[in-house]
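Please go through this protein, sequence plus structure tokens, and consider how the sequence yields the tokens. Keep your notes short.
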Amino acid sequence: MELGSRTDRSFARGRAALAAGVLGLLLAVGGCGASGDASGGAKAADSKYAPPGEQEGAGADADGAASSAEERADGKPAGAKAAPKPGAAATHVIRTATLSVEVKNVAKAVAAARGAAESAGGLVATEETERLDDTYETSHLVLRVPQDRYQEVLRELAGSGKLLSRTSDAKDVTDQVVDVDSRIATQRASVARVRELMDRAEKISDVVALEGELSSRQSDLESLLAQQSSLKDRTSLATITLDLTPPDAPDDDGREEDTGFLDALGGGWDAFVTVLRWIAVAFGAAFPFLLTAALALVGWRVLRARRAARRAPAAPRQEPEGAPAP
């Protein structure tokens, strides 16, 4: 009996150990699954409350995993990248160009340049025409054309005659445009908050203080809006400066080489007349002084003559011969 009881106790202990092992295995498997779910939930929470840059990164990872799964489902390679969406990252560029073209007929070239700009949806901002003489004239134009037609108009203007010089410049102002847009949004929200405070203000002093603050913030907002408008104008329309000149146009050097005898005679006569004019001017300026000096000299001589006459002794009186003595 004692041996049987010991056997029963050993068998019971074995069954208890086996049950404990099975229970521990089940708890370990459940713990692994729970830890996986918890880690996934933690990652989701971190991505939800993470900064915008990290949220975008998490979203990009999720999108990449989803796209990889879809590609594998469609039979496409998992390493292939999706094409970027058009217009996702817009760039803002200020484009300017300067052209100097020699044309046979300046008037026709000006009309053609004006037509090219207007047909492209642009305009002529400035037009200056100068006539050198009865035959030659030059023209200076500033054209504003849309960015998408900029190269087309530039080629058309450069091919209108003999191209003498050409310069172009492109300046990327995307960061500046984004910064101004962000500051405008912030400033508008600030103005709206001040207006809400004004609506809830009850004291006159608070209203006056808020009005001054609103005026200051509104002024800053208008300045930012002006910058935004200027950037939009310069990035939407390119600027082309065009100088049109005729062939063999006379210049200053050509006029000096054509100087002849008559030109030299005319120049000498002009110089002579100029000298006489300056002499007359100098005499007119000195005339009052000369007149005063002359009058002073005449008066001095008159006084001197009178003094000499007073100082001279009277001459003795002579009687005629043969006159009787008194």
Observations:
- Residues 1-7, 29-88, 252-256 have pLDDT under 50 and may be disordered.
- Residues 261-311 form the longest helix (51 residues).
- The longest strand covers residues 162-172.
- Residues 146 and 167 are 18 Å apart (CA to CA).
